[in-house]
Amino acid sequence: MKTLAELIIDMSIDEYELLQGDISCPIESVAYDSRKAGPGSLFICIPGAVSDGHDYIPQVLEAGTTALVTSHDTDDLIPNNVTVLRVKDPRHALAMIAAAWFEYPAERLITIGITGTKGKTTTTYMIRDILEDAQIPCGLIGTIEIICGGEHIPAKNTTPESWIVQEYFAKMADAGLKAVVMEVSSQALKMSRVDGIMFDYGIFTNLEKDHIGENEHPDMEDYIACKSRLFRQCRTGIFNADADYLDGILAGHTCRVLTYGIENPADYRAGNIEPVHDQGFPGVEYDLTVREDVPVHVTVDIPGDFTVYNSLAAAALCRCMGIEDADILAALEKVRVKGRMEIVPTPGEYVLMIDYAHNAMALEALLKNLRSYAKGRLICCFGCGGNRSKDRRYEMGEVSSRLADLSVVTSDNPRFEEPADIIADILVGVKKGGGEYIMIEDRKEAIRWCMKNGRKGDLIVLAGKGHEDYQEIRGVKYPMDERVLVREIIEEEGM
């Protein structure tokens, strides 16, 4: 149990106003979901896109809430024995209160935050694998999952709400972990989910014109401004020297600056980049030069230029932490990331890969990077989600048709639309691209066709689902893991 005064100790006096009651009141628990409020609780009223926590004040008072944090003036219906604090930003208040409630677990961990349009997920896994190999137990918070020791929890958001972040930081520290690496999305920075954390290290991967629109960022200026916040709350920042909008990301930074890159001068630089094939696993190798040091040869069993950038970021970070090159190189060579250019073994003489590319920008980058690895045809099997912009369908269809030798158009998450209608929209873009295509609505059957018709040297990529293990149809998520589908097809076909 703590007092309200202890929970708001890190908030400046101009961030809140006591409307009634006493901040020395004891707090038994903290809630921002009205269903979790109870006797002696502090309830933080969070305005949301769907509902507003202020609307649930009567319910939490009935449940026995002792204190409220609001951003509105309160009416006369709140009893005098309930303490009411008005704040400028409830989400910031939640973050600061969460840190205090869990007794500042970030201070017991080496904290690493990664932001950027692409590359966050792969880079987090690379860093975690390196640290684990170097005997530094490391937790992970990201798009796919939260990892705390041997526990793997499926993720709901790239960066969870601040309370959940602090809760898992505490679990990690209590479990004896020494570090945590996490994806920090622009929405998380915008919505104060990592407020109150001074990261030891921050990484900027890249920035592209994505996440602009309703319920995200109104324009690029806002997107850049949100991303840049990380570098005013970290001690050392590691930046992609080749990235667009780098100047905007660096604006107002307060951290030590290190850089990595391929084209521009950088502290950590990759040269002599070559694609490699090793027993069916396409990858990349390059020489890593750190300032004037002797180059170190790096091999990663994940293909593409963006793999070079991701592994450079991971190597730069781990070198900053004093990790030996041998540990860095050994971990990078064997790193695997679920749903990110993930190779799935098959008996065929082709390479089958699963990737999360689910918009035109990601698909174009993927197919361009894979082109040099396809000794035969580059085949792209993909669909588009329902109840989303039709432009995405046209664009993905055109990209696949233009860059792949064959497009296999199928279903993804149709949600509340008919799969055939979505496919018809995709085919508008496919026909514009002018490439060869076939249409197979059932995703398993589309994968089966690819496997049965794959030739020696072909590279088949199943795009869009990545780490997802479900298909969403009319509000229900049905189990569907492409890795399982591949195994079933192998068994059913006697391959």
Structure commentary:
The structure is a single chain. The chain has 495 residues and is of the alpha/beta class. The chain folds into three domains: 2-101, Udp-n-acetylmuramoylalanyl-d-glutamate--2,6- Diaminopimelate Ligase, Chain: A, domain 1 (3-Layer(aba) Sandwich); 105-334, 3-Layer(aba) Sandwich (UDP-N-acetylmuramoyl-L-alanine:D-glutamate ligase); 342-493, Mur ligase, C-terminal domain (Protein-Tyrosine Phosphatase, Chain A, Alpha-Beta Complex), CATH 3.90.190. It has 15 helices and 26 strands. The strands form five sheets. The chain has an eleven-stranded mixed β-sheet with strand order 11-10-9-12-8-13-14-15-16-17-18, sandwiched between helices. It has a six-stranded mixed β-sheet with strand order 19-20-24-21-22-23, with helices on both faces. Strands 2-7-6-5-4 form a five-stranded mixed β-sheet, with helices on one face. The longest helix has 16 residues, at 305-320. It is globular, with a radius of gyration of 25 Å.
**SSE class:** alpha/beta
Strand content: 25-35%
Task: Give the low-confidence spans.
Answer: none
Instruction: Report how far the terminal alpha carbons are from each other.
Output: 61 Å
Identify the CATH homologous superfamily of the largest domain.
Answer: Mur-like, catalytic domain
User: Count of helical segments?
Assistant: 15
Domain count: the total is: 3
CATH architecture of the largest domain: 3-Layer(aba) Sandwich
CATH topology (level 3) name of the largest domain: UDP-N-acetylmuramoyl-L-alanine:D-glutamate ligase
Report on the biggest sheet: 11 strands, mixed
Which bin fits the share of residues in helices? 25-40%
Shape: globular
Beta strands, count: 26
Query: Main sheet: which strands, in order across?
Result: 11-10-9-12-8-13-14-15-16-17-18
* Mean pLDDT over the full residue set: 94
For the record, the CATH class of the largest domain is Alpha Beta
Rg, alpha carbons: 25 Å
